[in-house]
């Protein structure tokens, strides 16, 4: 019997797991650790909080630049590396994310939606959301702000829009270089849908990013996040950890960049687990917060509503 690709696809994205009790793992707690060898503050550098850059402890003021260097370095091989590292499964995650949100101006509605895709990079989610709104609801009016702190990554998005002949120099679509933790150009209470995909993990202050998402959303607006998370099944976690060890080697061989992919692996490890991140979403003020783990918890979709 031919197994339809959709059955295979859905089994790779969302595996209904009934874990026996002895399989459950203690939840790893996300916390900012003080540096093991604290840099003593100098007169030029008053006491500064530290943060992590992957597994390294760095001055908080330097993280944004370090992350910027990483994404400027990976930008031109970003799409290829995603397919290689995830065996193409990242596409299934993103399709599921877009279909589950199912956003678009309904035919009987007069008000187009205002989307913002933060850390939008090469446009996978932003373009996918607009395509979905148009194909499912005939929506060609909703607007999209694609925001990213890194101009090189945004250039990849603009290049794709130009090559595909869609959304380039489109009055509905803006490409904005801006920090997702602040979004100073975005008015409060102005957006209907806020999405962030594989981006918030890289923020210097994740809670600040969530608080800003809350600020820019309208009452009734939806926060929607796709991010790496914690693998709940110990056997799958073991296999995943072995795979993760290979990612920097792939980065070195394909993109000539071992360190950026070592950072990727370490940043995934540092990101809070599903429940902890849900609590952070609630702390920002969102209600009805929830999540869905995908592919054994390799990543998860989290959401919340601004009431
Ligand atoms: C610097 O930061 C980044 C740089 C960059 O270029 C991209 C990103 C964003 C990254 C992604 C969107 C994808 C990254 C991919 C991974 C972290 C790997 C995910 C791994 C898998 C989906 C496969 C896991 C493999 C195993 C568990 C090994 C055993 C199983 C198989 C080989 C068969 C496949 C079966 C399953 C997957 C269940 C970035 O942040
Ligand atoms: C792995 S890429 C994700 C791109 C895209 N959302 C996707 O799903 O493929 C992470 C993106 O987050 C961006 N980023 C990191 N820190 C950011 C910040 N503070 N504000 C906005 N974007 C940020 C990076 O520049 C990069 O483009």
Automatic annotation (TrEMBL):
Stretches assigned to coiled coil: none
Family membership noted in the UniProt record: Belongs to the class I-like SAM-binding methyltransferase superfamily. MenG/UbiE family.
Origin: domain of life: Eukaryota
Enzyme Commission identifier(s): 2.1.1.201
Keywords carried by this UniProt record: Membrane, Methyltransferase, Mitochondrion, Mitochondrion inner membrane, S-adenosyl-L-methionine, Transferase, Ubiquinone biosynthesis
Gene Ontology biological process terms in this record: methylation
Gene name tied to this protein: SMKI13G0240
Residues reported in the UniProt entry to bind S-adenosyl-L-methionine: 122, 148, 179-180, 197
Membrane topology note: Peripheral membrane protein
Any one GO molecular function term: 2-methoxy-6-polyprenyl-1,4-benzoquinol methyltransferase activity
Compartments where located: Mitochondrion inner membrane
Oligomeric and partner information: Component of a multi-subunit COQ enzyme complex, composed of at least COQ3, COQ4, COQ5, COQ6, COQ7 and COQ9. Interacts with COQ3.
Function of the protein: Methyltransferase required for the conversion of 2-hexaprenyl-6-methoxy-1,4-benzoquinol (DDMQH2) to 2-hexaprenyl-3-methyl-6-methoxy-1,4-benzoquinol (DMQH2).
Enzyme type, top EC level: transferase
Pfam family, one: Ubie_methyltran
Pathway(s) per entry: Cofactor biosynthesis; ubiquinone biosynthesis
Reaction catalysis annotation: 2-methoxy-6-(all-trans-hexaprenyl)benzene-1,4-diol + S-adenosyl-L-methionine = 5-methoxy-2-methyl-3-(all-trans-hexaprenyl)benzene-1,4-diol + S-adenosyl-L-homocysteine + H(+)
Primary localization: mitochondrion
Alphabetized InterPro entries for the sequence: SAM-dependent_MTases_sf, UbiE/COQ5_MeTrFase, UbiE/COQ5_MeTrFase_CS
Gene Ontology cellular-component annotations: extrinsic component of mitochondrial inner membrane
Protein name in the entry: 2-methoxy-6-polyprenyl-1,4-benzoquinol methylase, mitochondrial
Species of origin: Saccharomyces mikatae IFO 1815
């Amino acid at each position: 019997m031919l197994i339809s690709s959709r059955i295979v696809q859905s089994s790779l994205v969302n595996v209904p797991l009934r874990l026996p009790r002895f399989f459950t793992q203690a939840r790893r707690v996300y916390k900012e650790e003080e540096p093991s060898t604290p840099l003593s503050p100098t007169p030029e550098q008053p006491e500064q909080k530290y943060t992590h850059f992957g597994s390294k402890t760095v001055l908080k003021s330097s993280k944004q630049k370090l992350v910027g260097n990483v994404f400027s370095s990976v930008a031109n091989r970003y799409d290829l590396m995603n397919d290689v590292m995830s065996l193409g499964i990242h596409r299934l995650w993103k399709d599921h994310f877009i279909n589950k949100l199912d956003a678009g101006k309904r035919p009987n509605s007069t008000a187009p939606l205002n989307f913002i895709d933060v850390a939008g990079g090469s446009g996978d989610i932003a373009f996918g959301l607009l395509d979905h709104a148009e194909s499912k609801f005939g929506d060609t009016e909703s607007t999209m702000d694609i925001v990213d702190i890194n101009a090189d990554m945004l250039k990849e998005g603009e290049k794709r829009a130009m090559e595909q002949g869609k959304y380039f120099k489109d009055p509905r679509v803006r490409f904005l270089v801006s920090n997702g933790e602040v979004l100073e150009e975005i008015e409060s209470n102005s957006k209907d849908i806020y999405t962030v995909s594989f981006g918030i993990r890289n923020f210097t202050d994740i809670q600040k990013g969530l608080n800003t998402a809350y600020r820019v959303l309208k009452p009734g607006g939806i926060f929607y996040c796709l991010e790496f998370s914690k693998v709940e099944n110990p056997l799958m976690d073991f296999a995943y950890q072995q795979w993760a060890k290979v990612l920097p080697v792939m980065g070195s061989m394909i993109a000539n960049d071992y360190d950026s992919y070592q950072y990727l692996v370490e940043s995934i490890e540092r990101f809070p687990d599903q429940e902890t991140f849900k609590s952070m979403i609630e702390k920002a003020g969102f209600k009805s917060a929830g999540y869905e783990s995908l592919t054994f918890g390799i990543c998860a979709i989290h959401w919340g509503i601004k009431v």
